Amino acid sequence: MKTCIFQCSALLLLLVCSSFRHPNHVKDDFRPGYYVDSSGKVEGYINFTYDTYEKFDFKEEPTDKKITKHATDCDGFSVDGKTFRVIGRINLKIGIWNVSAEKAFAEVVVEGPLNLYKVYAMVGNANMRAPGGAEVGNYFLEKANSKRYLYAPPGKARFRSEMMDFFQDRMDIAEKVDDRRYNFNNIAEMVKDYNSKPCDTCR
Questions:
Q1: Terminal-to-terminal C-alpha distance of the chain
Q2: Are 182 and 176 in contact (CB under 8 A)?
Q3: Which pLDDT tens digit goes with each residue over 119-155?
Q4: Containing domain of residue 162, as a range?
Q5: Same domain for 80 and 129?
Q6: What distance in Å separates the CA atoms of residue 181 and residue 163, rounded to the nearest whole number?
Q7: Does 9 map to a domain?
Q8: Are 109 and 189 in the same domain?
Q9: Quick one: which H or E segment has residue 129?
Q10: For residue 66, is it within any domain?
Q11: Alpha-carbon distance 141 to 34, whole Å?
């Protein structure tokens, strides 16, 4: 009886831990994709686990030995219908840690005059890269491909303050941030609004 209870408890614990993982957090789950470097586009199979912003694994053919590509090795990659671009000199908030990254792979969430990026990481109970932890997403804004990236803080007061300052070239958006029609939860909608017409100083 005790053995049965122990087995059931272990199975339940495994299911609970697994529920916190991103659906793509599967070891060696290679899918069709490509990366881009100085030589051009290289097609093959990519395994990106969404728990690190620094690297992905690549195979040209499914039976090949995998190689690891880092953010210092290429300009970006595409897999699962998502495009990732290398951005740099950013400060990430990962759990209780503030982490500086010279280069990181960032998902292109919205592209246009104003780009919105999402940088993935993982935080666990004791180590920010621990398996079974919770996914963390940091959002960054970039105007006119300037390579200057503004971190979008999730906190209500700080988000409101920084976004009102950031959108001085679109006062209608700044006003929507001020009265909280735009906030961290609908940040993609806010960026699409900005891209829908010229900025005030661009007319």
A1: 76
A2: yes
A3: 998 766 444 444 455 678 999 999 999 999 999 999 9
A4: 154-203
A5: yes
A6: 12
A7: no
A8: no
A9: none
A10: yes
A11: 25
Contact 33, 78 (CB under 8 A): yes
| Neighbouring-strand partners of residue 168 | none
Segment holding 82, helix H or strand E: strand 82-94
Please state the φ and ψ torsions of residue 109, each to the nearest 5 degrees: -80, -45
Residues 6 or more apart from 32 whose CB is under 8 A from it? 43, 44, 45, 46, 79
Residue with tokens 């659906």: 23
Q: Please indicate, yes or no, if residue 8 is contained in any of the structural domains.
A: no
Question: Quick check: 155 and 93 in contact, CB under 8 A?
Answer: no
131 Cβ partners below 8 Å, 6+ apart?
21, 51, 122, 124
- At which residue do the structure tokens 């951005």 appear? 87
Q: According to the model, what pLDDT value does residue 20 have?
A: 40
CA distance 48 to 52: 8
Q: What percent of the chain has pLDDT over 70?
A: 80
Are the CB atoms for 69 and 46 separated by under 8 Å? Answer: no
Shared domain check, 121 and 103: yes
Is 78 in contact with 91 (CB distance < 8 Å)? no
Clarify whether residues 169 and 196 are in a common domain: yes
- Which residues are CB-contacts of 40 (< 8 A; sequence separation ≥ 6)? none
For the record, the structure tokens of 36 come out as: 């881009």
Q: Decide: residue 13, CB within 10 A, 0-12 exposed, 13-18 middle, 19+ buried.
A: exposed
Q: Is the same domain home to 125 and 41?
A: yes
